[in-house]
Write a structure and sequence with these properties.
Elements (H helix, E strand, L loop, with lengths): L9 H7 L25 H8 L14 H14 L3 E5 L2 H10 L7 E5 L4 H13 L3 E5 L4 H7 L6 E5 L11 H10 L3 E5 L4 H4 L9 E5 L13 E5 L1 H15 L5 H12 L1 H20 L4 E5 L9 H7 L6 E6 L2 H11 L4 E2 L9 E3 L10 H8 L5 E5 L5 H13 L3
Parallel strand pairs: 2-3, 2-4, 4-5, 5-6, 10-11
Antiparallel strand pairs: 1-7, 6-7, 8-9, 9-12, 11-12
Helix pairs in contact: 1-3, 1-10, 3-10, 4-5, 11-15, 13-15
The protein binds pyridoxal-5'-phosphate.
């Protein structure tokens, strides 16, 4: 496949990793909008299906634009192999369902993206997979749950929306001793701030919809893992069930990745400044940001992440009414359930992304009615702060 030297540094890989030029020598990655491919002969088609020659067959199994995206993501992550999918949820679903069977056991951290939570709580038990949630930050709960053999551990760190941190190395050790593979949803950290494979993860999943596109244009996902697992477990599932990504979306994601480091770096600096600013404001009862001194897991966050990320969560006084008042006053910050965008976006998790998990589960996760999740964008940070201040002034 690609001949690009994977030992280049990350910023270089983000721009040039995985490029496969056609005979035209195009500068930008070519967009191959084709469902199928033709062969020189019936013999070549036969040899392709026997895996004796490398030739694209059908875009559900593989496509040249998609494979450039996969090669680039694998290089950045330091993974042996990658498969891109149509959405982040298709990636999570494929990673889990390709590996699991009836009678298996899954242990997951409770603080998961809403749809990941649904797969574990509702979908898997339908197929006879036993599932159990633990508080991800509590190693004693992981040890207790994994005292019984298990097949898979799923976790997210930092978590959505409360930015809880899970100790990746410690949980991976406990999971491996129980016989489980460890699947990490690394969306909030991005491929740049946290390297789960170096800390013991077996599989890493992304919603590329978030920072990798980063500009609110397309959905996409990715699963990364060892070559053998991807070839023998994941690829047959993708090939035969079809969660494949459009070449057009893969092409946009390739262009998005080129500026990922610039955007994430600027977003982290702005988010840290916004978190410090919010902590000083009246009308706020609490701020969560992984690298702030008042985050209960600051030391762990700083040990396993190179920066705190682009998300800030805060709780306003006055519950839902207070939160809605503040959000409705924003002029620059947009109300949206999306995140990781160049535009600053505010979410009220209790009534949107985390409505369906119910009040009891929300209480366990600390998602109160006053909690607002802010995805800090690329606007001038002073304008973001002014917008927040104008909203919060209404609570005084
Ligand atoms: C958005 C998101 C997903 C799902 O990705 P989609 O592209 O929306 O399907 C999964 N996990 C996390 C942490 C997310 O933020």
């Amino acid at each position: 496949m690609t001949t690009f030297d994977p030992r280049y540094r990350t910023a270089t890989l983000l721009v040039q990793g995985g490029v496969e030029r056609s005979h035209h020598g195009e500068t930008a990655e070519a967009l191959y909008l084709t469902s199928g491919f033709v062969y020189d002969s019936a013999e070549q088609a036969e040899a392709t299906f026997k895996n004796e020659v490398q030739h694209f067959q059908y875009s559900r199994f593989g496509n040249p634009t998609v494979s450039m995206l996969e090669a680039r993501l694998a290089m950045i992550e330091g993974a042996e192999a990658c498969r891109a999918t149509a959405t982040g949820m298709a990636a999570v679903h494929a990673a889990m369902l390709s590996h699991l069977k009836t009678g298996d056991r899954v242990v997951a951290s409770r603080a998961l993206f809403g749809s990941c939570h649904w797969i574990v709580s509702t979908l898997l038990p339908r197929y006879g997979v036993k599932t159990e949630f633990v508080d991800g930050g509590d190693l004693a709960q992981w040890r207790a749950a994994l005292a019984t053999p298990a097949d898979m551990v799923l976790l997210e760190t930092p978590s959505n929306p409360m930015l809880d941190i899970v100790d990746l190395k410690a949980v991976a050790d406990i999971a491996h001793a129980a016989g489980a593979i460890v699947v990490v949803d690394n969306v909030f950290a991005t491929p740049l701030l946290q390297k789960p494979f170096e800390l013991g993860a077996d599989v890493v999943v992304y919603s590329c919809t978030k920072h990798i596109d980063g500009q609110g244009r397309v959905l996409g996902g990715a699963v990364l893992g060892r070559q053998k697992w991807v070839d023998e477990v994941l690829q047959p599932f993708i090939r035969n069930t079809g969660p494949s990504i459009s070449a057009f979306n893969a092409w946009l994601l390739l262009k998005g990745i080129e500026t990922l480091a610039l955007r994430v770096d600027a977003g982290c600096r702005a988010a840290a400044a916004v978190a410090d600013f919010l902590a000083e404001q009246k009308g706020i009862s609490r701020v969560w940001y992984p690298t702030r001194a008042d985050h209960p897991q600051q030391a762990l966050a700083m040990a396993q992440m190179s920066a705190g990320g682009t998300m800030v969560t805060f709780e306003v006084k006055g519950g839902k009414e207070g939160a809605f008042k503040v959000m409705n006053a924003f002029r620059l910050i947009k109300v949206s359930n999306n995140l990781g965008d160049s535009k600053s976006l505010a979410t009220h998790p209790a009534t949107t992304t985390h409505m369906r998990i119910g009040a009891e589960e929300r209480a366990k996760l600390g998602i109160t009615d006053g909690v607002i999740r802010l995805s800090v964008g690329l606007e001038d940070v002073r304008d973001i702060q002014d917008d927040l201040a104008a909203g919060l002034a209404l609570l005084a």
